[in-house]
Design goal:
- This protein is mainly β.
- It has no helices and eleven strands.
- The strands form two sheets. Strands 2, 4, 5, 6, 9, 10 and 11 form a seven-stranded mixed sheet that branches. The protein has a four-stranded antiparallel sheet with strand order 1-3-8-7, with no helix packed on it.
- It is globular.
């Protein structure tokens, strides 16, 4: 199975940007659509963004669209989430996830579709 490792979290000031990376190992990266989710303290895990196996289809959650970009490098087995104009409401643990069931150009925002998860990386946005 695939192993996922997130990086790039940390403390960011409001209005700033962050770039989260997720590196996959263990299986063929293009077997998976990839997603980012986040979970804030006391809240349920929330969909952030997803990208299809071939990188063509992308989808964003309402809370981050228009200020986020997801991309993937299938040669480097990496998916990146760029988020701009951060606010304290973006404070959460961010998780990378892999979905092997979606077809090549498809993606899902549904957590249950994702079989593999990283450990998460903490993002804290200060006022």
């Amino acid at each position: 199975q695939v192993q996922l490792k997130e990086s790039g979290g940390g403390l960011v000031q409001a209005g700033g940007s962050l770039r989260l990376s997720c590196t996959a190992s263990g299986r063929t990266f293009t077997d998976y659509a990839m997603g980012w989710f986040r979970q804030a303290p006391g809240k349920e895990r929330e969909f952030v963004a997803a990208i299809s196996r071939n990188g063509v289809t992308k989808y964003y959650g309402d809370s981050v669209k228009d200020r986020s970009t997801i991309s993937r490098d299938n040669e480097r087995n990496t998916v990146v989430l760029q988020m701009n104009d951060l606010s304290p409401e973006d404070t959460a643990v961010y998780y990378c996830a892999a979905d092997s069931r979606s077809s090549t150009g498809s993606i899902s925002s549904i957590e249950l579709f994702y079989e593999h998860w990283g450990q998460g990386t903490q993002v804290t946005v200060s006022r």
